[in-house]
Amino acid sequence: MEINKIVSESLSAVREKNPLVHHITNYVTVNDCANITLAIGGSPVMADDINEVYDMVSLASSFVINIGTLNSRTVEAMIKGGKRANELNIPVILDPVGAGATPYRTEVAKRILEEIRISVIRGNLSEIKTLYGVKTKTKGVDSGDVIDENADEFTKAKKISKDFAKKLNTVVVITGAVDIITDGNNLYSVYNGQKIMSKITGTGCMCTSLIGSYLGATENVLVAALSGIVSMGIAGEIACENLDKSNEGTGTLKVRIIDAIFNLNEKVIIDRGKIMNEG
């Protein structure tokens, strides 16, 4: 319950500070990422041109890099923006969407990790395994691997995430049926969320934006990452509970997730957060 309280205080910090969260993200989910950033209490900006990224990042509280829809123009903007963020000690979060699907996508993700100091990496199991160096299967931009808390895969995922976090001196987040968040020393697993969330394009991207919002208001990077994950999971549960299963589906669910984030408060996080300290 103590960690739930800490997460709830992070939410208050976001709403008090209204951090500017600069995104270079993908055009499939850019609108959703902007809206969920607004809903949690941040202020989104989506400037991706290399001619202004240096100046825009300089104004930001955090910088989100999402490689969902890659092109050579935005890759260079990502690198330039990330290096500027590093100069100013502005936290950077990487969402390596689809790493492992194509050689180019994997190469870009690894280049970002080599050239930019990343505060948080958030991906599914396949993406993280690819960047860690484990052979895996990726279906388009979807994970070919599934974390089951009762399976040996969960134990392996925890080890990989811890080792990877130590290697890069960053926080690694693996999202799935069970979410894993670690800085290499401390590890939390989160059991919030609903399976139907995977049927909506952009829930992962929106989750990354939430983490970016918390990073812009919270000095503790591990807590910021954990807060974004818990917030998204709780919002998914509330959205599903409020869904009229006879008439409504995934379109309404996405809207309700954003509504749930907008209405999220400290009491809801304390009461509903399913966080396990795995040591």
Largest sheet properties: 9 strands, mixed
Number of strands: 11
Physical arrangement of strands within the biggest beta sheet: 2-1-3-4-5-8-9-10-11
Number of domains: 1
User: From the alpha-carbon coordinates, what is the Rg to the nearest angstrom?
Assistant: 17 Å
Q: How many H/I helices? A: 11
Pathway: Cofactor biosynthesis; thiamine diphosphate biosynthesis; 4-methyl-5-(2-phosphoethyl)-thiazole from 5-(2-hydroxyethyl)-4-methylthiazole: step 1/1
Enzyme class: transferase
Binding site for ATP: 122, 175
Keywords: ATP-binding, Kinase, Magnesium, Metal-binding, Nucleotide-binding, Thiamine biosynthesis, Transferase
Written overview of the protein:
The protein has 279 residues and is α/β, with parallel strands linked by helices. The protein has a single domain (2-277), classed as Ribokinase (UDP-N-acetylmuramoyl-L-alanine:D-glutamate ligase, 3-Layer(aba) Sandwich), CATH 3.40.1190. The protein has eleven helices and eleven strands. The protein has helices at 2-17, 30-40, 53-59, 72-87, 103-115, 125-132, 152-168, 203-215, 221-241, 250-263, 266-272, and strands at residues 20-24, 43-45, 62-66, 92-95, 120-123, 138-139, 142-143, 171-174, 179-182, 187-190, 275-277. A nine-stranded mixed sheet has the order 2-1-3-4-5-8-9-10-11, sandwiched between helices. It has a two-stranded antiparallel ribbon with strand order 6-7. Helix 4 links the parallel strand 3 (62-66) and strand 4 (92-95). Helix 2 (30-40) packs parallel to helix 10 and helix 3 crosses helix 4 (72-87). The longest helix is centred in the last third of the chain and has 21 residues, at 221-241. The protein is globular and about 45 Å long. It starts with a helix and ends with a strand. The model has no long low-confidence stretch (mean pLDDT 94).
